[in-house]
Design goal:
It is built from five helices and three strands; from the N terminus they run αααβαβαβ. By secondary structure, the chain is α/β, with parallel strands linked by helices. The chain folds into two domains: 1-70, no CATH class; 74-139. α1 (3-9) runs antiparallel to α2 (50-63) and α3 (74-82) runs parallel beside α4 (99-109). It starts with a helix and ends in a 17-residue tail after the last strand.
Length: 156
């Protein structure tokens, strides 16, 4: 299938109960369970629901991956990615990243042993110079907030 077709149809399955050909927006917060710990696939919408599952499946297809993840906020996604790191790991980030991201890095994760340094990510020479033996992640936000600087992702 072409990309455009996949963007519309990937992750979409008809609803056996209603015959709907596109996944509806599920607005429920809680799903019926057969007993404690005996869920039928979903428990609470905050941990997963059919609408988000369809989006994640579509993202996986469009990105050529095995699975996709969707989050309620960028900060939730950021927090999840940082949890892949271990104490002593270094993150090289842009010197004009979103303030909430900077605070999460500097005030929260630094105290758990992660190291952070900041460079102008629009300058690949600065990015290269900022790499360390323990660098495990280069954090790019492009365009940046609030300055709207654009980094060349491919060159970084």
């Amino acid at each position: 299938m072409k990309f455009e077709t996949q963007a519309i149809h990937a992750g979409q399955h008809s609803d056996p109960a209603t015959g709907a050909v596109m996944t509806p927006i599920y607005q429920t917060s809680t799903y019926k369970q057969d007993g404690v710990g005996k869920q039928r696939g979903y428990e609470y919408s905050r941990t997963g629901n059919p609408t988000r599952a369809a989006l994640e499946a579509c993202i996986a297809v469009l990105e050529g991956g095995q699975s996709g993840l969707a989050f309620a906020s960028g900060m939730a996604a950021t927090d999840t990615v940082l949890r892949l790191l271990a104490p002593g790991d270094h993150v090289l980030a842009g010197n004009d990243i979103y303030g909430g991201t900077f605070r999460l890095f500097d005030k929260e994760y630094r105290r758990y042993g992660l190291e952070f340094s900041y460079v102008d990510t629009t300058d690949t020479a600065q990015v290269e110079a900022g790499l360390r033996a323990n660098t495990r992640m280069v954090w790019l936000e492009t365009p940046t907030n609030p300055l709207l600087n654009v980094s060349d992702i491919q060159s970084v």
